[in-house]
Amino acid sequence: MKQVGDDEGETPEETRKRIKEEIELKQDNKQLQEDLKREKKRRLSIEESKRDLLDELNSLMREKELLLKQQSDDKENGKLLEDMISLRKKLGEFDTENKRLKKEVKELKEALSEVIVTHDEEKERVLEECENEKSEMMEELVASKRELESQLQELFAMNDDLKGTISNLQEELKESSERFSTEIDVPNENIESGTSKGISHEDNGLLSQTLKQEGGDQEAKQGKSPSTEFQNLAEQWKTERDELQEMFKVEKERLQKTFDDELKRKLAENDEQHKQRNEEMATEINRKFSIEKKEIKASVEKKIY
């Protein structure tokens, strides 16, 4: 109603102006519609471009991830390669160290063999010395035995001489008795008895003097009979012989016991010395080997870590 009232009150000029404005408004509206469509299209295009860009960005991101993963793999492979090279280098060092240790073990075995050989040689030398000492003592014992046997032979010879002297004296006494019995005529029994006593006394004195000179027996001075003197001399010789044999036996047993005791002592002493020396050498070798083993272990651990 207002528009109609306005139209009715408008002038033609105003009407033309209004129509012109309406036409312009319509044109502007149409232009705006077109601009809006273009804007929508542009926005749609932008959205599509945005989606394409996002897709491309996602693709690039995936490619980037793949590249990063590939770079990481390459880096990891390079690290693994470096680790492998380092391990091979360490294996080479360990191989060298192992060869050195084998060489040292071989040297230690050779040194131990030399020690064993030296011990055996020392043992043989000591045994040889003991055998020599035993031989020397046996020679001394044999010499002492020979000396005692020589003394015993001398006593036997003295006994034979004494027996010969006694036999000669008995023969002389017998001859003297027979000679005096044939040459002297005794007038009566008393004179004969006295003469016989005198002759016997004279012969006994001569026999006693001879026995004194030969055997040094003091009992002849006491006027004993020849048979008693001979018996005493025989008993004395037997006693001296028994004493010498007993002395020889005791001396032989003493020398043998002394030799056995000394031999046992020397063998025990040598065995103890060798045992102590072997224990000391074994302890020293074990100590050195333990020290070298610890040093090698520490060196290997240091190289590894």
UniProtKB/TrEMBL annotation:
Composition bias, Basic and acidic residues: 13-22, 173-182
Amino acid composition bias (Acidic residues), ranges on this chain: 1-12
Location of region: Disordered: 1-22, 173-230
Superkingdom assignment: Eukaryota
Name of the protein in question: Uncharacterized protein
